[in-house]
Each structure stands twice: as C-alpha cells, then as structure tokens.
Amino acid sequence: MTRLRGAEVLFFEPPASGKSKDYKKPGRKMRPGLTVYTLPSVLEVDEKHTRLFAMSQRRLARFILDKLSRHRFRESVLWTTSPGQVHLLDLLPCKGVIYDCDRAWSAFPLEWESDLALSADVIFAASPGLIDRLSPCNDNLALLPGGVNYPMFSRDGLPTPPELRGVRAPVLGWAGTIHRDTDLTPALQAVRDLPDCAFVFVGAVDEKNPLFPLLREFPNVAFTGFKPLVDLPDYLGRFDVCLDFLRRRDVGSDIIPCRIYEYLSTGKPIVSMLYEDQVEEFPDVIYGAHTPQEYAQLCQRALSEAGDWARRRRRDYGEAAAWSGRADEVCRILGSIGLY
C-alpha cells in the first residue's frame, strides 16, 4: 500500500495486549503518505453474543472513523487482510473494498471470509490455490504473491553482525520465526551430519517446539532471537547456505513465504524441505529435499556449489518479486476498476 504513488495510507495495527493504551497516542508518521494508528482493545466474544459482539465492532469503527475525519478522508478505500474485518464493512462508508488474502484462514468461520470475498471489489490472492478457494465468491481475483525489498537484500559487502564475527566455519542459516509446529527434523539431521559447519537461526523461537531443546545443546548451533527486518540482510550476508523448513499446518499449501524471496535476492544457495507431492518452486536454483537425510546431503552439495549461473538466476527471481513491481501491478489493477 505504501508504494501507491500519491496515496495517503492510514494503517491500523492491533493492540499489543488487552490492556494496551497505545490507541490514545497520536498516529506515527512512518514516511510521507503513511500514518500508523494502534486500534483500541475490544472484548473477544463469540458472534453468538450478539450485543457484546456488535458493541466491540462499533467501538473499532468509531475509532477508525475519527481518524478518517482527522485526515479529511472523503472517499476512502478499505484494504482488508483478514475475515475478522468483515463486520466493519457496514460501519465504514467507503468507495471500495479490497481483500488482500495471503493465507488460507482456519481461525475464522468460513462464512466470514465468504461475505468479505463477496463484498470485495477486487481480491488479491497470494497463490493459485487461494484463487481456487475464493473464486466461487468473486470473479475479480488477481494473483499477487509475496515480495521482497530487493535493493535491501541484494546488497553485497554487508557488515558481519557482532555475534557472528567469531564464526570461522561455513554458516548455514535460517531467517524467520520458529513456530511450535515448525518441523526441525531436517535441521537436526544436518547439524549431526555436518559438525564442522555452524547453524544459525535468526528470529523468534517458540520454545515449545519439541526439537528446540535438542538443537540448542549442539556447540555448532546458535539462536540469535528476534532481529528487526532492517538488520536481516547483514545476517543473510554471512550465510553460506540459506535454509528453509516446513510448518506442519502448511503441508499442502502453495503459498511461497516472503523469506524465500529474501533468500533468492542474496543469490546464495537455498536448501528447502518439501512435503510429499509438492510442486517445486524455482527447481532450477533451490535444492529440494523430501527426507531429512536428503536434506543434510543437499546442504553439503550446496556448500560446494560452483560457478555464478545459479547465483545470478536467483537474483533474477528476487528482482522479479520486488515490491516495486508488485505495487505497479496493484496500481494497474486498481486503476482499471476506478479505485486508484
């Protein structure tokens, strides 16, 4: 949204906690044309409690309407990202509705997403599978995969982060959140099979992941914890091989995580775990494994990769996924239906 030239964007983020008072703070001017507000906390009640549920939605709507008025919005376009926002549509006057769908939602009733999809003037879906899922509700769908800040992640000669300066071994690294259901079996196999390599996991970790306690006991494994997005290129710049794992909830999904585009932009070798019968994305430049044993073997092969062809090809894929290009496509589509 922030790359739509000439547009003024108000971004409403959820509160950090139920007791947060951040909604009372003034909006944060992040850059020209982008102001961020924190929504007030509301009661999380089931829709069957009609009055309480409606009160919560009206509170959110009043807050948003107040900010729209302060910014003198007359014809706003609502950019929605979650089925939970469908209840605001009748409370917020607008010129049009966009549904930006980046996942197969399971935490909300199916009727909510159906109603949102039916109300949308256009749906941006992150994968062909999501298009198939939403097509019964709307004919105006466009494929809009995730993207990457290509100039930021494609830079060379970046400084080595302090905690990695003493590492002399080849570094195989992951960048992203490790969830409770992230399958780290391939990582455990690779760590055991490649004891002379360093394995670095950059990002927050759910310590309830069953293999996390085992992995952190290895002397060649390091967990850095959460790092801001702006710092990630420095860590990826020290990686010799980039690692990708599966979440059990994502088995069968065809959504490409933005992490893959970040990896591609570096040009570095990538080893990814595949689920059974998965159609490989970028098979010419990503090493895809179907078993933990094969994963460890491909890590070794990736470390030995020679020549520049694959590196250049990866960067071409990364550049093709740049947010600037994605924004141009969004502008074209919104312009064609009179919303931009």
From TrEMBL:
SUPFAM superfamilies: UDP-Glycosyltransferase/glycogen phosphorylase
Protein name: Glycosyltransferase family 1 protein
Source species: Lawsonibacter faecis
